[in-house]
Amino acid sequence: MRYVRFTRDGVTRYGLVDGDMVRPIAGEPWTDPTPSGDAVALSAVTLEVPVIPRTFYAAGINYAAHIREMAAKRGETPKFPEKADIGYRANNALVAHDQDVVIPAHATTKINYEGELVVVIGKQAKHLTEAEAMSCVFGYTIGNDVSERTWQRGDRTFWRGKNTDTFKPMGPWIQTQADLDAMETIVRVNGKEDLRFKTNDMIFGIAHYISQMTRYLTLYPGDVIWMGTDGTSPDLVHGDVVEVELTGLGVLRNRFVREGA
Amino acid sequence: MRYVRFTRDGVTRYGLVDGDMVRPIAGEPWTDPTPSGDAVALSAVTLEVPVIPRTFYAAGINYAAHIREMAAKRGETPKFPEKADIGYRANNALVAHDQDVVIPAHATTKINYEGELVVVIGKQAKHLTEAEAMSCVFGYTIGNDVSERTWQRGDRTFWRGKNTDTFKPMGPWIQTQADLDAMETIVRVNGKEDLRFKTNDMIFGIAHYISQMTRYLTLYPGDVIWMGTDGTSPDLVHGDVVEVELTGLGVLRNRFVREGA
Fold it and tell me: Mutation test of the interface with chain A: which of B54, B91, B165, B168, choosing the one with the most A Cβ atoms within 10 A?
């Protein structure tokens, strides 16, 4: 099943996608998915960020080629993570499918995409074993962990480099089923394929991350975990359109525009 | 004015404190403070975390003595921040005044308090100058940025060291007025004064942080900014009660308990 968060006539709510139509539901998909109201055409609604999480988790580095290629770019020895230390991103930076990523006028040219699988939590969870971990997962969506590499490396935190407004596109919907082992992540820039990798080829998998995280923290319904990316991105410029496709899940598309360009 | 978020008869809402009484209000203090319902005794309600922020900001290092003393503990040269790079904390870790801080059984003995002034945002804000910055501030509360120093230094992120469940006590209320220049931060352990410093003796002040942050990000009502701490804490043990007082604002009190002790 595929759920969207959408706005129509000034009201934002969740709906269940059925072909080209959306049927509104009473609550959030993980609290009350009871149908409520008439179905409308998907093309007649505005898609919103599929959830504003209580806490926005991100694995950061979690694929081998990304670590090797980023280290090579910096002339450094690759450093692989020794354990599943989760990181964070900020809700102010979220934008929906088809909304613009706005690059601040004084940013450098080092603007990169990172196409990521996003895990959406559906049940409150603490102290889950790896075998139990997937029981708290409601579904999946797609994220683009947009980064300004100069700020990412030069600042004391990731506040500007990763969390500038609009730097975290997420969507277009939450899907409850996914064949993770068959899934490929494909990134296209202006319609041309730029990167392709096996989505589940992670250093630390979803179940391992969740079991490690829930030793210390409680996951809540609506929390999201961005699982990291492989490969590297070209430097994006004003007008570029980036599509992140997760096969069997969907396509997240956003245009990049430079402030004042 | 002093607002509390409280639970009574299973319902959580905001109220305005008037002496020993709380008068419920219709919405959040920054959206709809209209009185709504009968006043009840403050002693008859359970205080909750005063706000679950959309984004939880934290300055981290922002006082000179704290940086010097922490560096000395590690046998390093003190490194002062060159600019106001804001950091983050996680909502899962929040607990209210009088709730316990629970130290995981396998944590080391390096459990420290950090008493902090917390700024609560009341208006959506972007691109504020330093002169305009305070216009988006609704009020102030108190935070204790509890840290496990071994995890803080050894992990790739602050996920366990700073954001383990219950490691972020915040409260007891939000106060709209504060004489920041006169304010002192006083920390007591088991009733005995352990630390005292001038609250506003920050490296980068509130207005400077807000003006720098809003160059890149939108602040939303209910967002919080923890302003950092001065000095250093002893290693806290099972049963210790820590009180963080901000003079003229209130006292945040929490007992520390070790899991399985």
Answer: B91
